[in-house]
């Protein structure tokens, strides 16, 4: 043992093999962490998303500030689906698909008619204003909020939204 001013100091023994194993475990942990982060980023940006309802346009089905999961790739738009859509200003809005390509949608005395037949909609709230017949174009969809009270839902009844392209559909509500 070495002496320093009369004190005995312990001899340090370094296990080089153990030190390199610790370093290797550290790198493996960091790589694993980075892979998990990349996977989470991929899943939340391209496969699934968590969305928060902003407003009352989907009452009573979805409440303001309600949270739901959206599937971004595992869906095919169908009548009755609740979807997230990019509006012309780039905001995400939540609506229900009412009309598919080539459908005719009209509102008479508060009743939505689809291809001249009244639509059974037990999920709606409010009474919409009348609307002249709209023919949904190829690759387009007619969307409406479940709250049909005039002024509560910005949807395909409004000329600024009109029918929407399938490319504007971000995803479908899962749960």
UniProtKB/TrEMBL annotation:
Membrane topology annotation: Single-pass type II membrane protein
Xref: InterPro entries: LexA/Signal_pep-like_sf, Pept_S26A_signal_pept_1, Pept_S26A_signal_pept_1_Ser-AS, Peptidase_S26
Catalytic activity field: Cleavage of hydrophobic, N-terminal signal or leader sequences from secreted and periplasmic proteins
Enzyme class: hydrolase
Pfam family, one: Peptidase_S26
Peptidase S26 domain location: 28-174
Protein name: Signal peptidase I
Source organism: Heyndrickxia vini
